[in-house]
Design brief:
This protein has helices at about 5-10, 15-30, 35-40, 50-60; strands spanning about 35, 65-70, 75-80, 90-95, 105-110, 130. With about 140 residues, the chain is an alpha+beta fold. The structure holds zinc ion (3 copies). Its cofactor is Mn(2+); Fe(2+); Zn(2+).
Length: about 140
């Protein structure tokens, strides 16, 4: 297994095999993954609650971030730059390919500032662009 334990340690997490295995999944793929992808991948080796808790911890620590999927689900992707603990706001676009269903972070393409009606306070913006990715074109 490649050693990604330093990422866990840098983020103040104890190194456990489960955390390493899940982190591995994110490192070996460029595109976003869902909790059920991880469960399907790891099979019976791991229980759902553990996967759920591990993902939640990773999000809290700024190792991965959430991406809202078009079918109401949630996917996750690695944070590219080190995100400050607990407060990593992402303002980049996400792209979902309608052919291969892969969701990708478009890190360099930022969401434009939103104009909201008076009285509305913005906390988070998620933009999912749907279309066909370069691999499927
Ligand atoms: Zn982040
Ligand atoms: Zn595609
Ligand atoms: Zn992203």
């Amino acid at each position: 297994m490649n050693s990604n334990s330093h990422i866990l340690r840098d983020n103040g997490l104890r190194v456990t095999e489960t955390r390493q295995v899940i982190l591995d999944k994110f490192q070996e793929r460029q595109s976003a993954i869902s909790q059920s992808d991880i469960e399907a991948d790891l099979g019976a080796d791991i229980d759902r609650v553990t996967v759920y808790r591990t993902l939640k911890t990773f999000v809290e620590r700024g190792i991965i971030h959430k991406i809202l999927d078009d079918k109401g689900g949630v996917k996750y992707a690695m944070c590219k730059e080190s995100c400050a603990h607990g407060d990593h706001h992402h303002d980049h676009l996400h792209f979902k390919c309608s052919v291969c269903q892969e969701t990708t972070c478009l890190e360099k393409h930022l969401i434009p500032k939103m104009q909201l009606p008076e009285g509305y306070q913005q906390e988070e913006v998620n933009i999912l662009v749907q279309g066909i990715c370069p691999n499927c074109k």
